[in-house]
Each structure stands twice: as C-alpha cells, then as structure tokens.
Predict the structure.
Amino acid sequence: MEETDVGVCVPGFKAAGIRKGGYGLAVILSEGEADCALMVTSNRVRAAPVLVSLGHAGRGKARGVVASSGNANCFTGEKGLEDAREMCRLAAGRFGSSPQDYIVNSTGVIGRRLDMDAIEALLEEMPEPASSRDASLAAAKAIMTTDTVPKMYSVRTTLETGEEVHIGGIAKGAGMIAPGLVHATMFCFLTTDARIPGDRIQSVLREAVELSFNMTVVDGDMSTNDMVCLLAGGTAGNKDIDENFQKALDRVCRELARMIARDGEGATKYLEVTVRNAATREDAAAAARAVAGSSLVKTAVFGSDPNWGRIIAALGYSGAEMDPGKVSLYLRGREREVCLVRDGEPLALEGTEELKLAEEVMKEKEIHITADLAMGEGEATAFGCDLGYDYVKINAEYTT
Amino acid sequence: MEETDVGVCVPGFKAAGIRKGGYGLAVILSEGEADCALMVTSNRVRAAPVLVSLGHAGRGKARGVVASSGNANCFTGEKGLEDAREMCRLAAGRFGSSPQDYIVNSTGVIGRRLDMDAIEALLEEMPEPASSRDASLAAAKAIMTTDTVPKMYSVRTTLETGEEVHIGGIAKGAGMIAPGLVHATMFCFLTTDARIPGDRIQSVLREAVELSFNMTVVDGDMSTNDMVCLLAGGTAGNKDIDENFQKALDRVCRELARMIARDGEGATKYLEVTVRNAATREDAAAAARAVAGSSLVKTAVFGSDPNWGRIIAALGYSGAEMDPGKVSLYLRGREREVCLVRDGEPLALEGTEELKLAEEVMKEKEIHITADLAMGEGEATAFGCDLGYDYVKINAEYTT
C-alpha cells in the first residue's frame, strides 16, 4: 500500500470546488454510474439533504456528490427538502445524469433556510471538474466550516489477484464531532476505482467507519448532518475485493479521522487513546472513547497537567469491564514513554521520576495514552484533541 | 414547608468543620444512632472511602459523617482503604461511637495517598461540634474544592399527622459532575430529625436524588467519589413519613443541586432545561440532560449566542423519541420569554423579532430552555451552567 496525492480524484473520478461569501460548494463526479454506500448520523433530527440522500442511495448507485458549506439546511421543513432536491437538480443540469443520481449534503448553522440563489450562483461559477490533486483540494476546501485545514488522503494498493486499485477521500469536521452510535459521525466522501461486487460495499464501509470516524471525539455533540459516502467506480478491472482493499480503506478513513481530530475546534494538541486487553472490542472502544472524550482529560492535556487520575476515572465510567487493581497506564509523546500505573499500582506519585517524566511528555504536541485493562483481548483506538480556550471562543461566537 | 437556615444542624444533629493548608475536614454527628441511606457513584473505579462507607452503611445505621477535602483517596489500593478506616477510627476516638458507625469520604486529586498526619492534626484542632447555622456552614466550607461558595439548604415541613420535621443538607461539587446513571453524582450529606420506618429511607432518598443530583450536569465526567448520604435521627416524634416529607426532601436536594450547577467550574451563567410532553419521564430526563450537557449549547449560552439549532441537535441525539415536526422550543430569562420554534416551525429566523428577543434573553445570567416534544406526558428538568474560558483555566491547572 502506498500513499498517493490525488484525494478523491482516483481514476474515473473528477472533482471541483468553489468558495464565495459565506458559502462553499463541492462536487465529486464519477465518469460512469458508481456503486454507492452511505452512512449517516443516528441523530433523530436529520437534515433535509441527509433525508434526500438516503432516498437517492436506496438503489445502491450514484453518479456523484454535491455538498455545500455555510448552512446545514437542517430543521428547515418541507422547504428544506425542496432545496436539497433542487441542489441535485442544479448539479444534474450542469454535470449531467438525473437528480436522483446525486448524493447531497450541507454543513453549517442549523435552522436557517438555504440561500438557493447563492448555491445556484456558485454552481454556475464553479470551474470545470477535473481529475487532479488541485481539483480534489478545491473540493476539500469548499466544504470547510470551522476547519482550519482541508482534509484529503489517498492510497493505492494491489489486490491479491494482482490488480492495482485506488482509494481516496476528502473530509470536513472540526466541531460537533462525536461517535455516531449507530451510523457515522461527520462528513467524508470516499472514492475508489475498485469494483466491489454484490452488496459488500456497505459492509466494507461500515467496518472502516467503526474503526475511524466512530472513534473520533471532539466535543461529544452528534451532528444532524453527519455523512460518510463511498462511491466505487469499478474501472480498476478487478473482479472482487479482498483484505488488502479493506486495509487500504481502513487506512484512508483512519487518516482522515486523525486529520479531523487534529483539527478539532480550538485544538492545540492531538490526543490518541488506545485501550488494549479489554474484555471485548466493544469495551475497548467504549473505554477509549470515554477517555478521549472526557472534558477533564482534555483540559489536562491542554494544560500539560499529568493528572492521570482523570484517565482512571474516565475508564471507570466508560461502562467497560475493569478491575482497578489490574489496570496499567502509559503515556507517550513523540519520543518518550512513561508508565504511570502498573498492574493497579500507581508509579507516578509526587516526587517520583515517573511524575517528572510525565510532566515533560504532557508538554508535547501529540499525546498517546495507552490503558491495558488486563481483562481479555479487546483493543481499540480513539482519536481526539485537547480542550482549550479557543474551543470556547469559536463556539461562543458561531452565529453572531 | 418553610426554608430554615440551619443546614445539616436540624434537631438532634451537630456539625463542625476546619480548613488548613490544602486540606479541609468536616464532621456531622447524630446525638443517637441514626438510620442511614447511602447512594454512591456507579463509576467502576470507586474511591477507598466510598468502599469503606458502603461496608459501614450495610446495616442501615450510622452515627455520623467524616469527610475531607484536598485529596480523593482514590486509586490508592490497600493503603487507601486503611487510611479511610483510620479516618473513621480517629473520628470515633474523638467523638465517640465505633469506627463502623461513620460514613467517610474524601474529595480532591485522584491517585495520591492521603496525608494522614494532616487529617489527624485537623481532627485534633477541630472545634467542638455544635448545632448551629455557623457549625453547618463550617462543615460546608471544609468540604469545598473548586467550589466558590459553600452549599447548604434546609427546610421544615409538617406531616399530615401533625408532627413538624426538619430536613437539611450540605453539598459540594463544581466539576466532575455528571448524571450518575445508576447511583448518585457528587457529595451531599443530608440530615433529618424524622423517623423513617422500615427500609423506606433508601427509596425516599433515591426518589429525591433522581430528580436533583442525577439531573445535574456540569462537565459530563462522572466522579469516583460521588456520594449522597441521608441520616435520619428519628427524634421528631413522628411514626411514619408521608408525601410532605418526600416533597421537602425533594426540595432540599433540588436546591442543593441547583447550587452545584450555579457554581459549576468557571460558570458565568445558570442554565435550566425542562423537557415536557416527552413519550416517557425517562425520555424527558435523557433529553433535558443532553441539552444541559451539550458543549455546543453551553458555549452558546456563554457567548449569548441564540444558536437554537444546537438545542434541536442535542434533543435529536439524546435518544428520546421525537418528531422534529412537532417540537416547540422556548427560551426564558428572568422576565422575558420567546418561542423559538412552534410545532416544528422555526420562528426565530434572521430578521425576525423572535431572534432579536432571543438575543436579548441570551444575555441574561439565568437561561431557561423549555422543549415540548408533543409525544406524551413525560417531564423532567436538568440543572446546568455555561462552558466558558474559566472551566478550561481551572481544569488545565488543577494539580500543577
């Protein structure tokens, strides 16, 4: 498997993006009809474009994605549904195919009607879609809201049967990020030139999402517009996919999830939490997410405070089976690692070398916490960030 | 029912408190043996004194409470258990009765051994327990950590059978506050002179805690040391309790819960969320807690931003049954109220009087959000606060 730089513009796909005023608009187009898998938020309030997209994706085929930023078109009633359908009609009018062939989504403030004149103008002025790194980047930039960097990642891998396949994606998301319970948790559009036979496209996507976006925690708020969409163009010439494909898709999703965590609203530090030897994988996932999502752990990371008791407390309320007397806890920066607790015995106590080292590690920009529960073989990793003043600043001043 | 000013020093009870250096110590004593109900955190990591107290409370009787601040005595292994038992022995040595007659707890940093010399010195220097407002206040002050104000409340009420009974409490808690799922969520010691016959003391306490402390959200982190304890001295001369007693206990717990929410770490505003006409009371409670606990709602309250879409999103992910087309949403300050959404129809849109009024209301120091789900008859209220810079400041600099 190798990293490439084309983002969603894998063979058979084009993209374009434009930003103007408070709005942005991105399109991703497959040359031919693509197989489509869609995962959306489990929030009971689902935005209009999410509902429209669920309808369009029902037959498992799509031609492309059209997505806007600046307004979520959520809680906008019947008019909102019309606006989402109109976005698909406008896209079909300019780029071909029928409106039902488009997956549509919007991101931004909730409860305000979409400015369809602005969307129409953006669509008219949008550059011709192209298959290039720059085109993918323009699409990634167009869907940004409080994101500070565009998020794009792609790889190529070789199947066991010899064919080379490509997988790429763009994502957005900085706040309102929480594990999606049932479905997905943010905004990610994935493309591949692989052919994915039968109905496996949904299951390979679900597997990748469980390990990546559903393990990403910024602030614990689950959005109304979360969406992960995979389009498979099928031009790579492969008959089937295999474990190599799944690994590559997992990696693309994990890297994009990491980018979202790193770019968490107001984040100054990246936080990765691995829980191993939990009773089950579900326990490991719950425990890792609880630690990565704990406001007290996040503020301690922000303040470089080696207050590891908060990690223990978060493990304790995560719901995972645990025996405090068996837990081991490790803290790792880029180069240094320290054992804070071994088999239930605290090592990083006042005056110890361990605590001093922990203080040093906590000052780093990338903090890895590993908890070994010694209960079984479950393992999971969660992706998060610290909680600093700027998270408050960004969210206290969002609509005003 | 009438408010009184004695706190835990209801007839038959004395209290004392002392603070020195980084430690504080409080005692509450019943003249005779009291009936005792105890609710503790459902965190799988339970602090040593919580475990010791569970053992002591097993026979349903207690003589008093001894509680320290400055160190949680949590994740401290066998030594921690010994230290907690030693606290009870020291209390029994000075105030009488046997060590097993004391409920014990500690609050502060997790994972560091208690300084027993400091505890012993505090106990020796502690003033003689007295039955007065000042004595209760000294106890309330002694258990403060990041609290900015001591928390104490008391009432007297008359039973239907004519006897007057008193209920009082002191509480602490500012951070690491979250609904306690199964048990309780913070630190509250309650006293009453009423006799509570049979095994009803636990059920009346549970009922009051469900409506108060379990509906209080500051930061979503559930503590390892949470405890609510009710001691019933039985000197009031009543044979039985009735609905008046439950109402009075509910009120004491609710007022103490409100004090905790108002004093949430770094809080600049008080937030109360009522959900009515939910499918069930459980749904109403889940929805109210989700809104009060949402980082995005809390930062919007801090920033006086009428971004009501975040409230809708939080209702949507709360797990409560809801139909976005039926929801109504109201915002209320001390004097003004505005309807943001009526029967699913947004009213507070750009340029409307409703949005202008919402902006004004959001500037107030006390914000009440009411959501009507129009699904049934369930109702619940959650108590919370905003999320501002000072929450980050306090928690980024806690141990260092």
